[in-house]
């Protein structure tokens, strides 16, 4: 597999109008190991120093950090740095996978006495990816009888890319998936959720992937630090390819490859939000985020 050595710095700064007296935070800012990626190192620096801080794995195998503050603080600075080796699945391995989508659906179907595939837990609706009949009808145009799982999955990805407009002003973080679908506009989070709803509506399995995308500045221009951003795409269960999951990026109409850096995977955005928390304070706050992804020569 063709691989790249990539380093990422993700800086998050919260500035509070008045001091925060108590805070509990959960972060998904450490990358994962899977068939597409190997973690070289990962660091998380937090200022001020938390009163409590511990790490563990969630139910999906993602690295997560819990940290809390029990004393007053006027800001929070989180600097996540990592290095990963990313991989690209050779196209010939993808083309060798001939299983149809109906065969995959049958594998995932529950039957008494039959062993249950771990992938089956990603069949069901979730808070950010509920069942939507209109999206199911949209998916059925790609998943025609007897079609290969690979071909149907890629076709759906391509159609979302062509039919929907990338528009940061069209949606907010909590915009329902059916609204983004109706308006045919949104951002990577929306397109990933639409794709996931479409796949699951047919009795197939799909995950939400949170991460980054390595970008290249225009010719003659220097890459600006902090100019990158978090990204999201989908992963569909397709037994037969390396790792049995095919990652597809409908925002860019591509198979996620060695330019994609994976942080976490879950049922939807709600499972793997990069950082969230609960604070006790009397004022509002301002947040700024900067991401820099660079290839290590």
TrEMBL record:
Q: Name one GO molecular function term.
A: peptidase activity
Locate the Transglutaminase-like domain: which residues? 180-252
The alphabetized list of GO BP terms reads: proteolysis
InterPro entries named in the record: Bac_transglu_N, Papain-like_cys_pep_sf, Transglutaminase-like
Record SMART domains: TGc
Keywords attached to this Swiss-Prot or TrEMBL record, sorted alphabetically, are: Hydrolase, Protease
| Pfam families in UniProt | Bact_transglu_N, Transglut_core
PANTHER family tied to this protein: BLR2979 PROTEIN (PTHR33490:SF7), BLR5614 PROTEIN-RELATED (PTHR33490)
Protein name per UniProt: Transglutaminase-like enzyme, putative cysteine protease
